[in-house]
C-alpha cells in the first residue's frame, strides 16, 4: 500500500469520527498544538485520558456496588471523567457523563448503573477508534510519509 | 189514776172520723219515712250527683215531717206533758229544716232545669260529630287517592309520561269513562286534543280557545261541571241508550312555557293553561261528589308542578351539556397552551445546549485556522467566517435574552467600556455588508461624547447593530448615516417621547443615537407594529421575506431596561426611515479601577506577540485537562509548571510565577486555594495573578471568584487565539473577568 493511499484512508477515517460525533473541535485543538517541539502531544494526552478513564470507571463500578451508595463520591468521579473527555474532545463520552451526573443528583441508583454501562460502552468505542487512528498514523510514518494537516472537511 | 189512756175498742159515730185521721197520719208517716230511702237508693246508683248536701237536708226534712205526723197519734186525746214537749220539739226542728231546704232549692232548681237543655245540646253535638266523622273518613280516602296519584305523577320527569300517567291513574281512581287533555296550539288561539284515556288517535281535534265554556273553566281554579254536549266533551258518539255521564273540566297551569321544545311555542307573556276533561260513565246515576272534585283539583295542581320540574330538569340538562362542551373546549385550549409552552421551552433548550455549543466549536476552529499559513484571500474568508459565527452566536443569545426579557429575569451588566471604540467596532462590522449593497455609510460622533461610559456594553452594541443592520437590510440604494451625541435637555420635550422625563445629574448622561436611511420606508400607520415581536411590515415582508422580525422588539426592551426610549419616523413607503433612541449611561469616576470585559484582540502581526519565558503555574486535579492547558500555554511560549492539587500548588508557587491558572469546577477547593495564595504573598506587591478556568457559566461563579480576590475568570473552551488575548489583557491590565 502506498503512502498516498494510507493518507487518504487516514483522512476518511478521521472524518468519520467527527461526522459520527465521537470527536469534536477540542480534538482538533490538540492536533494544532502538536509541533516539532512537542511531536507526541496528542498521543500523550490521549494516553493520559485512557489511564484516567480506566481508573475512574473501576472506581465508579466499586462505588455503585456498595449497599449504601455514596452519591457524592460517584458524582466526583463522573465529574473527573467529564473533564477528561471534554479536554480531549471525546464528545459522546462527555455527553454520557452529563446524563450520569443528573441521575447522581437525583440519587437514582438504577439509572446510575445504566449510565455507567453507557459510559463504559462509549469509552470502549472511542478508545478503539482512537487506537485505530494512531495505528494508521504509525503506518504512514513508517512508510516515510507525514500525517496530513489539512482538515478541509470541517466547515 | 182512775182510768188508763188505752183506746177503747168500741167507739161511737164521732170516733169514726178520728179513726180515719189515725189511719191517714200513719200512712203519711210511712210515706215520709220511705222517700229518703228511695232517694238514697237511686243517688247511689248514679255516678255523679252534685247536690249531696241538699239530699241530706231534704231527707232530714222528710223524716221530721213523718215524725210529727206519727206523734199526732197521741194528741187526739188528753195527753201528758211529756207528749206535748216531744211534739213541740219535733215541730220546731221540722220548721227549721223545711225553711232551710226551701232556701236551698231556690238555688238548685234552675240548675236542675238546665240539665235538660244541656242534654239537648249534647245530642245535637253528637249528631254534628257524627257528620264530621263521616267527612273525615271521606277526606282520608280522598287524601290517600291524592297521595297515590301524586306519587305516580311525580315519579317521572318526562312530560309525556307525566300526562299519560295522570289520565290513567285518574281514570282508575275515579272509574271514569273517558279523560282527555287539551293543549294550546302553536298559535295559542286553539286547544288541541293531545291525550285521551281510551280513544285512539286523538290527534287533529281542535277547538277555538275562546269558547264560553273554556273561558269559564280557565277563569276558575276549581273543577267546573260542564255540559256533556259541549265541544271539548263530545269526543265520540254515545253507545248508550240513555243520557251521558256527568262531565267536569279543570284548568292545568303551564309553567316555563318558553322552555317547552316539543311544541316549539313562541314566548307568551300571559300564563297559559291546558284543559283536562273528565267524564263519568254513561247510563249511570253517578254524580260528581265534592271530594272527587277536590281530588281533581289537587291532581291538576300536581300535574302543573310536575311539568314545571320536567321543564327545569330539561333546562339544567341542556346547561350541563353546554358546560361539558365548554369544558372540552377549555381543556383543548389548555392543552394547546401547554404544548406551546413546552415547545418554547424545548426550543430554548435546543438553542442553549445544541446550538450554542457547536457555535463555540466553529469559533474555536476558525480561530485555530487563522493560525495556519493562509493566503490573503483565505485569511479574509476565515475572518468572515469568524465574524459570521460571532453574529450567529449573538442571534442565538438574542432569542435566549428575549425569553429572559419576557419573564423579567434578564439583568443588565454594568461595566466601564470605551464608547468611541464601541461605535468604531459597529462600523467595522457593518461596512462590509453595506459595501456589498453599494450603500454609503457615514457616521458622526460628537466631540463632547465621553470616551468611557458605564453601562451594559454588550446590549448597547447589540441595539445599535440591530438598528443599523435593519437600515442596511431595508435599503437598496442611497446612504445611511449614524449620529451619536449627548442628548440635550430641550430634546426631552420632544412630542414623540411624551412619557420620557429623565433626571439629569453629574454622574450620568443620556446618549442619543440616530440612524437615518433612504430605504424602503414604512407606512406611518404601521409604525406602532414594528416593535412587536416577530411582526414585520406587511408590504415589506413580500419584498424581503428573510428576517426574523426579532431585532426591534429586543431593542425596545433593552432600551427600556437602560432607562431610555426608542422611536421610529418615516414619511411613507419609499421615503426612508429614521430610528432614534436615547439611553442612560453612567460617567465613570477616574479613580475607579477599570474592570473591562474580555474582548479578544487579534494583533496585526500574528508572530509579534509572544510570551517567551512567561512563568505560568497550572493547577488542575484532572490530569487530562491539566496536560491540555499546559500544551496550550507552551505553544504560546510560556514556561509552564503544573500542580495536581492545592497542596502541591501552594508548595510550588513562587514570586517568579506571574500567572496562576486554577480550576474551580469542583466545589470550593479553588476558592480556598486563592485565599491561601493571597495569605502567602500578603507582604509583597507583585504577587502572581490568580485566574480561574471553568466550564461553569453561572453568574454566581464570577461573584465567588471576585469575592475571594481572584484577578480573572476564563470560560472553557479556550482556543489558542483566546488564550493569547487573555494573556495580553491580563499582563496589561492586571484584571480580566470574562462576561457570562
TrEMBL record, chain A:
**What are the annotated GO cellular component locations?**
cytosol; nucleus
Q: Which residues carry this modification: Phosphohistidine?
A: 79
Location relative to the cell? Cytoplasm, Cytosol; Nucleus
Question: Its principal location?
Answer: cytoplasm
Q: Any notes on this protein's domains? A: Histidine-containing phosphotransfer domain (HPt) contains an active histidine that mediates the phosphotransfer.
InterPro entries, per the entry: AHP1-5/YPD1, HPT_dom_sf, Sig_transdc_His_kin_Hpt_dom
Supply the alphabetized keyword list: Acetylation, Cytokinin signaling pathway, Cytoplasm, Nucleus, Phosphoprotein, Two-component regulatory system
The protein in question is named: Histidine-containing phosphotransfer protein
What is the scientific name of the source organism?
A: Glycine soja
Q: Which GO terms describe its biological process?
A: cytokinin-activated signaling pathway; phosphorelay signal transduction system
Gene Ontology MF, one: histidine phosphotransfer kinase activity
Indicate the segments annotated as coiled coil, or none if absent.
none
Lineage runs:
Eukaryota, Viridiplantae, Streptophyta, Embryophyta, Tracheophyta
Locate the HPt domain: which residues?
Answer: 38-143
Task: Say which domain of life the source belongs to.
Answer: Eukaryota
UniProtKB/TrEMBL annotation, chain B:
CDD domains linked to this entry: HisKA, REC_ETR-like
InterPro entries from the entry? CheY-like_superfamily, ETR, ETR1_N, GAF, GAF-like_dom_sf, HATPase_C_sf, HATPase_dom, His_kinase_dom
- Residues at which ADP binds: 470-473, 517, 533, 548, 552
Q: Where is the Histidine kinase domain?
A: 350-587
Its principal location?
A: endoplasmic reticulum
Q: Which GO terms describe its molecular function?
A: ATP binding; ethylene binding; ethylene receptor activity; metal ion binding; phosphorelay sensor kinase activity
- Which residues get modified to 4-aspartylphosphate? 663
Q: Which SMART domains match?
A: GAF, HATPase_c, HisKA, REC
Q: Where in the cell is it found?
A: Endoplasmic reticulum membrane
Co-factor note (free text): Binds 1 copper ion per dimer.
Q: Does the keyword Transmembrane apply?
A: yes
Member of which family? Belongs to the ethylene receptor family.
User: What is the recorded name of this protein?
Assistant: Ethylene receptor
Q: Which organism is it from?
A: Glycine soja (Wild soybean)
Amino acid at each position: 500500500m502506498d503512502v498516498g493511499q494510507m493518507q487518504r484512508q487516514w483522512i476518511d477515517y478521521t472524518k468519520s469520527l467527527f461526522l459520527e460525533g465521537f470527536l469534536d473541535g477540542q480534538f482538533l485543538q490538540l492536533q494544532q498544538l502538536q509541533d516539532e517541539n512537542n511531536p507526541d502531544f496528542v498521543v500523550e494526552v490521549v494516553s493520559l485520558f485512557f489511564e484516567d478513564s480506566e481508573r475512574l470507571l473501576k472506581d465508579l463500578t466499586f462505588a455503585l456496588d456498595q449497599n449504601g451508595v455514596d452519591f457524592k463520591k460517584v458524582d466526583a468521579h463522573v465529574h473527573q471523567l467529564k473533564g477528561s473527555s471534554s479536554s480531549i474532545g471525546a464528545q459522546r463520552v462527555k455527553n454520557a457523563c452529563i446524563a450520569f451526573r443528573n441521575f447522581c443528583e437525583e440519587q437514582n441508583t438504577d439509572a446510575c448503573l445504566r449510565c455507567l454501562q453507557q459510559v463504559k460502552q462509549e469509552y470502549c468505542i472511542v478508545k478503539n477508534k482512537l487506537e485505530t487512528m494512531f495505528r494508521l498514523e504509525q503506518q504512514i510514518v513508517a512508510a516515510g510519509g507525514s500525517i496530513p494537516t489539512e482538515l478541509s472537511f470541517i466547515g | 189514776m182512775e182510768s188508763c189512756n188505752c183506746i177503747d175498742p168500741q167507739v161511737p159515730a164521732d170516733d169514726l172520723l178520728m179513726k180515719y185521721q189515725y189511719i191517714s197520719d200513719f200512712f203519711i208517716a210511712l210515706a215520709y219515712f220511705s222517700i229518703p230511702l228511695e232517694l238514697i237508693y237511686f243517688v247511689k246508683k248514679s255516678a255523679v250527683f252534685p247536690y249531696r248536701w241538699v239530699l241530706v237536708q231534704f231527707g232530714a226534712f222528710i223524716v221530721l215531717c213523718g215524725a210529727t205526723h206519727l206523734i199526732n197519734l197521741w194528741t187526739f186525746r188528753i195527753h201528758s206533758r211529756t207528749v206535748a214537749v216531744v211534739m213541740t220539739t219535733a215541730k220546731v226542728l221540722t220548721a227549721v229544716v223545711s225553711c232551710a231546704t226551701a232556701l236551698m232549692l231556690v238555688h238548685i232548681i234552675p240548675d236542675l232545669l238546665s240539665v235538660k237543655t244541656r242534654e239537648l245540646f249534647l245530642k245535637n253535638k253528637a249528631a254534628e260529630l257524627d257528620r264530621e266523622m263521616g267527612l273525615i273518613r271521606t277526606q282520608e280516602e280522598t287524601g290517600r287517592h291524592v297521595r297515590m296519584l301524586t306519587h305516580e305523577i311525580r315519579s317521572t320527569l318526562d312530560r309525556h309520561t307525566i300526562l299519560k300517567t295522570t289520565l290513567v291513574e285518574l281514570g282508575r281512581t275515579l272509574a271514569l269513562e273517558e279523560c282527555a287533555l287539551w293543549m294550546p296550539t302553536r298559535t295559542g288561539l286553539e286547544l288541541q286534543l293531545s291525550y285521551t284515556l281510551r280513544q285512539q288517535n286523538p290527534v287533529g281535534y281542535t277547538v277555538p280557545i275562546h269558547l264560553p265554556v273554556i273561558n269559564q273553566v280557565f277563569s276558575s281554579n276549581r273543577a267546573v261541571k260542564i255540559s256533556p254536549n259541549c265541544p271539548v266533551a263530545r269526543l265520540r258518539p254515545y253507545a248508550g241508550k240513555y243520557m251521558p255521564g256527568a262531565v267536569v273540566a279543570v284548568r292545568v297551569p303551564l309553567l316555563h312555557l318558553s322552555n317547552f321544545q316539543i311544541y316549539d311555542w313562541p314566548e307568551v307573556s300571559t300564563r297559559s293553561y291546558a284543559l283536562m276533561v273528565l267524564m263519568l260513565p254513561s247510563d249511570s246515576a253517578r254524580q260528581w261528589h265534592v271530594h272527587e272534585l277536590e281530588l281533581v283539583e289537587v291532581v291538576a295542581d300536581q300535574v302543573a308542578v310536575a311539568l314545571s320540574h320536567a321543564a327545569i330538569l330539561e333546562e339544567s340538562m341542556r346547561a350541563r351539556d353546554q358546560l361539558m362542551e365548554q369544558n372540552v373546549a377549555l381543556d383543548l385550549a389548555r392543552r394547546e397552551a401547554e404544548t406551546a409552552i413546552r415547545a418554547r421551552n424545548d426550543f430554548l433548550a435546543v438553542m442553549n445546549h445544541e446550538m450554542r455549543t457547536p457555535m463555540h466549536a466553529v469559533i474555536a476552529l476558525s480561530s485555530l485556522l487563522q493560525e495556519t499559513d493562509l493566503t490573503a484571500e483565505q485569511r479574509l474568508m476565515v475572518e468572515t467566517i469568524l465574524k459570521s459565527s460571532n453574529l450567529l452566536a449573538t442571534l442565538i443569545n438574542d432569542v435566549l435574552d428575549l425569553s429572559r426579557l419576557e419573564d423579567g429575569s434578564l439583568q443588565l451588566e454594568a461595566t466601564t467600556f470605551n464608547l468611541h471604540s464601541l461605535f468604531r467596532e459597529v462600523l467595522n462590522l457593518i461596512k462590509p455588508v453595506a459595501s456589498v449593497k453599494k450603500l454609503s455609510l457615514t457616521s458622526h460622533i460628537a466631540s463632547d461624547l465621553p470616551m468611557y461610559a458605564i453601562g451594559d456594553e454588550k446590549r448597547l452594541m447589540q441595539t445599535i447593530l440591530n438598528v443599523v443592520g435593519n437600515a442596511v437590510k431595508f435599503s437598496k440604494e442611497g446612504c445611511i448615516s449614524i449620529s451619536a451625541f449627548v442628548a440635550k435637555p430641550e430634546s426631552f420635550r420632544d412630542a414623540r417621547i411624551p412619557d420620557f422625563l429623565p433626571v439629569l445629574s453629574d454622574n450620568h448622561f443620556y446618549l442619543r443615537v440616530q440612524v437615518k436611511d433612504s430605504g424602503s420606508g414604512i407606512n406611518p400607520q404601521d409604525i406602532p407594529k414594528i416593535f412587536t415581536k416577530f411582526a414585520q411590515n406587511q408590504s415589506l415582508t413580500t419584498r424581503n421575506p428573510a428576517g426574523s422580525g426579532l431585532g426591534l422588539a429586543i431593542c425596545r426592551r433593552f432600551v427600556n431596561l437602560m432607562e431610555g426610549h426608542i422611536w421610529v419616523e418615516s414619511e411613507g413607503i419609499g421615503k426612508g426611515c429614521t430610528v432614534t433612541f436615547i439611553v442612560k449611561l453612567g460617567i465613570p469616576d477616574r479613580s475607579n479601577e477599570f474592570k473591562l470585559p474580555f474582548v479578544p484582540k487579534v494583533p496585526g502581526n500574528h508572530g509579534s506577540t509572544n510570551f517567551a519565558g512567561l512563568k505560568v503555574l497550572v493547577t488542575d486535579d484532572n490530569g487530562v485537562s491539566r496536560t491540555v492547558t499546559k500544551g496550550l500555554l507552551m505553544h504560546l511560549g510560556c514556561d509552564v509548571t503544573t500542580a495536581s492539587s492545592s497542596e502541591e500548588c501552594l508548595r510550588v508557587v513562587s514570586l517568579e510565577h506571574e500567572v496562576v491558572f486554577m480550576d474551580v469546577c469542583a466545589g470550593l477547593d479553588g476558592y480556598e486555594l486563592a485565599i491561601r495564595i493571597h495569605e502567602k504573598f500578603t507582604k509583597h506587591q507583585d504577587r502572581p495573578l490568580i485566574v480561574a478556568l471553568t466550564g461553569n457559566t453561572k453568574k454566581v461563579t464570577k461573584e465567588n471568584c471576585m469575592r475571594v480576590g481572584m484577578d480573572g475568570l476564563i470560560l472553557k473552551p479556550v482556543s489558542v487565539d483566546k488564550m493569547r488575548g487573555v494573556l495580553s489583557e491580563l499582563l496589561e491590565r492586571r484584571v480580566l473577568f470574562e462576561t457570562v
